[in-house]
Amino acid sequence: MRILVTNDDGIFAKGIQELVKGLKGVGEIFVIAPASERSACGHGITVRQPIKVRKYHWQDKEVKAWAVEGTPADCVKIGITTLLEKTPDIVISGINKGSNLGTDVLYSGTVSAAIEGIILGVPSLSISLDSFTSEDYTIASQVANILCRDMLNNQLAPDTLLNVNVPAVPKSEIKGWKVTKLGERKYENIFEHRKDPHGNDYYWLAGQVVPPSTQDEELDVVAAEKNYISVTPIHFDLTNYRIMDQVKKWGIETKGI
Amino acid sequence: MRILVTNDDGIFAKGIQELVKGLKGVGEIFVIAPASERSACGHGITVRQPIKVRKYHWQDKEVKAWAVEGTPADCVKIGITTLLEKTPDIVISGINKGSNLGTDVLYSGTVSAAIEGIILGVPSLSISLDSFTSEDYTIASQVANILCRDMLNNQLAPDTLLNVNVPAVPKSEIKGWKVTKLGERKYENIFEHRKDPHGNDYYWLAGQVVPPSTQDEELDVVAAEKNYISVTPIHFDLTNYRIMDQVKKWGIETKGI
Which of A49, A96, B75, B205 is deepest in the core (most CB within 10 A)? Predict the structure, then answer.
């Protein structure tokens, strides 16, 4: 089995190193990750600039690695189409420092890398640790190992990925696993306004998460809060089928110009 | 009616200027757009750097405008939560130079700005001209006017946006309007490999679009190719509901750690 590993915290991040250790023995590992941090870059790709790629000497000599001056989606795209000789069997993105839940997945470079995987027809997994401070990726790395084996054994539709969030608590406090759907993630006090020394306005994105307004444990935002390992199947089709007929009823299709 | 206008080609682009002219008379217009081009930035947001915002003097004095050193999603987020005194009734993003069809919408700053609109509960419209060379936004700008009025008259679910692609052909060659779903957009020869003067590898994202493999005019990629104005309802819920049960059947929820 061939595993393409990437992330958005950059190739030097502890999360990706622990992920690679956790996957040892599952298959041949290829790391293709951003040369520097690319958090919150969403599904950005590099089109106006060239993308520099360098071989990277991973500590474990069995791991082949490249550092890419680009986004996580660039890494997966250039990895699958250009750098790797054979298509990988799975793409795994993470382990992200901080959760990727609900509407936040749209901003996430980690999840977007996995979405790029399924766009290119490779089953994918994105995995995040629900803490911006913890450096303990032990459980998340075990979870990646378990799910990677499961995904390789249970063929998923080629357009599906699993987005996984692991609570940053001791093993004894983890309540179990939940297959979830994406919830809403809202923030308050989003921007902090400042003035530079010359009197010009600037803003920092900040803000606190508003606790979920429901207790529905089928939502990833709730499952994570209750210390479940949340596993959300995701696809890339944003079509709102429910609304198609409603819009047709306006008579749009019979309009002139 | 209050209309928030943005784009990803930057506040100086002809597309946004023609869009604003086309919306004249529909409502009060606020332009909040990136200070420079931000194509293909996907749903990236700026979290590690401050976001500079400057007042911008639009030629039409009735239009209030701000140039934002950030992504299109930043513009909509900071516009709705911070810069505007009242929530706008609609967000319109465009007119993009080049189509945003099928899987490509995930990479699109234009569409992501509109997705940010619906995340914040404001009905949104993204509009693109299907040409990288044409400078004639006349028809696209009329289409924006028509759909903006329609959307304000026909209440859409707050989580829905319309993604519109307008053919870059004379009016007589436009076949009509189609309400569509997102198709697949595939490319071949994606990366061009070069070496810099020092012998280091770099790559340019390039590639040609592969023509759609189907003739189904309900797909945006086909409708656009056949010179229809394509209108696709989009939401932001990436959950793959179809796969949830399949994943539960693996026994994930009863696993240990």
Answer: B75
